[in-house]
Amino acid sequence: MMLARVADSLYWIGRYIERAEHHSRLCDVMLTAALDQNDAGVTVARRAASAVVDVKAVMGAEATMGAARSLVLDRRNERSVVTSLARARENARQVRDQITSETWERLNLLYLRVVSPTADRAFVRGPSAFLQSIIADLHLFNGAADATMSHGQGWRFLLLGIHLERAQLIARLLNVCYGDQLAKSPLEDHMTQVSVLRMACGLEPYLRVYTADIDSRLLLQFLLFDLEFPHSVRFCIERMEEHLRNLAPPGAAAARSRPERLAARLSGTLEFADLEETLAPAALLSAVAQECSAIHHAIIETFVSYPLEQRLKA
Amino acid sequence: MKSGRTSAARAPAIAPFYPVERAYDDMFTAEGTLRPHYRQLHGRMSALSAAELADRQRTLEQSFLLQGITFTVYGGGEATERIIPTDLFPRIIPATEWALIEKGLTQRLRALNAFLADVYGGQKILADGVLPRDLVLGAASYRREMQGIYVPYDAYVNVSGADLIRGEDGGFFVLEDNLRVPSGVSYMLANREAAKRTFPEIFRSARVRPVERYPDLLLAALKSLAPEWRPDPQIVVLTPGVFNSAYYEHAYLARLMGVPLVEGRDLVVHDNIVHMRTTSGLRAVDVIYRRVDDDFIDPLTFRRDSILGAAGLFNAYRAGNVVIANAPGTGVADDKAVYAYVPDIIHYYLGEDPVLPNVKTFLCRNPVELNHVLANLDKLVVKAVGASGGYGMLVGPHATLAERRAFAQRLKADPTNYIAQPTIHLSTAPCLVEGRIEPRHVDLRPFLLAGSKITVVPGALTRVALRRGSLVVNSSQGGGSKDTWVLAGSEAKP
Fold first, then answer.
1. What pTM, to 2 d.p., does this model score?
2. How many domains does chain A have?
3. Which terminus of chain B has a lower count of CB atoms within 10 Å, N or C?
4. ipTM above 0.90, yes or no
């Protein structure tokens, strides 16, 4: 039994946590790429950033730093890391009785660190170290949640949020980098592809599967369809399907809930998709984004803001 | 303490003696001898250096911040979270004194619950003229809607936290009964946890009675209120929400009891049954431990503009389908004018003498007492009966002549609205101030639970006026808190 409002909060904690982590990683890679003499690095950094912030056509190292700073520490920026963490923590505070102290304390500590008056100085002094430590702390949060929370409804809503957000973010990243480009001007530069893999947290796992021979088709194959890599789109969708199946009320097997049906359908699409058939993966990536958004709405309608008339006994 | 631990910082923090002022002090007698129950703690504290104490203080504050034991201060455009200042030096209440407190508070709560049952029932006490009818029925906190409603065990007040103070001779008085929605119990529990971590060695040998069972005692009291035909009752804690200053406590209690923390928007009343919205539909609720004031629990019955409660909640309560704890309308028994009659109330229902005395109270509605109050305005504290939290109040000795004159006008215009009490010199207890031990004024708030029976939890929240000489212990005005050790009696010795 779980309050609808609590489920909603846990789901959003998951989404905000994942967003903060992804954007931290994006900024870290972007700042590192901007240091290289190679133009291609800057290109991909700019393209990746354009998925989440307004980026000017030409950007020097200084402007990249400014964009990164806004994406990390600007409270007025809706999608910044600090905003995401503040919202995750605010949601956590509202369901403080439903998450374990270990989990809460990880998030609270991280929040207190990014809003402290010294955060800005720490970021400017060593942006990479600062971002790495945020990512490490978020991994601690995920670990604490996994190790200390009961793997029941609440935990499943948290993970639903994480996986949905992750699938959307990876799909968007791939779309801006490869959407229409694959046919026209493929991003064949090695450094560029490494950057994309880094942003998706997938460099090392990719190397283990395909070795350092980085090819954009293999890269897409990996980030879209890999069954074992936790940041691949298919992996995320399959986890969501699994959580939604477990969240369904017992005895409803004949009529699957709408979010579960949508997730299973998307999972099927990804299972049988063939990159070779399409010259540009844009259509597939857009479909993923649309389906994810449909699943989000279905989750809210099914579990959180359902119409009361349906649930009252006559 | 900042850098370079000098030899001065390594010196013991504790002076063998601090001068005791006019007020009673917990640790030293007026002659300057150490009270026996403080001997061990005093000895161990003396062995710690100022730097060590400051270190432990920092550790404690850090852990409170980490756990999110904070209250929110609004202002300056942005909300900031602060921890309630906590003093490390525990306060000790010996077993004999505690026995008296326990007996006195139990007696008082029994009498006050009987009084509420009578006021909202046959009103015999008013018919017998023990209290003036208009004083009770005219009180702002009297809830006409509660008349004739069934309340299990006549336990109108289920959770209370009386404020006790020591007089100049050290005896305890009841200053306020706090029968509405008293808070602070989470600080009692958090302070205890901190004290155990900070002074494990002292704690172990002091034989302190545990407070940790509070959440399960509370749950048991709430469960005892549910109807017998609901064998596994659904209990919930109702909070006004995350913006309430006591939100941490609401979440804390819900978590430790293992029950849902709900807000008004989670509740739906249909066919006089209260439901909560869960992910798999609606689920009936049996007992609501509400931390929302009477006025806000049901916009259909009380304040129309409230969005904190649930529409129709009171009708469900009236129909007997849900229990609200504390019952609405308990405020009439801790009204400041009714307070003056509590000794009479105890006599009337129990036929006993009060164990714990009241603070002398003058009712301004009574012309003789009003004249006395007007003549002695510079010595008295005057309070408005309906108000709480230090509002609408005059502290005579600290007021200017002009302030007193202005207040006298208001007093004469509406005497029934005021009571007066002598200015009380709160007792002092040793506190850790910047690495030194100094006396600070304190009060004592023990917590009582009443369902099928009354329980006094052996511990309390001691509130401290952290500024030297200050008598104000409210957390909104520079007050802090500290752990309170109720010692096990000698009969419990192994």
1. 0.87
2. 1
3. C
4. no
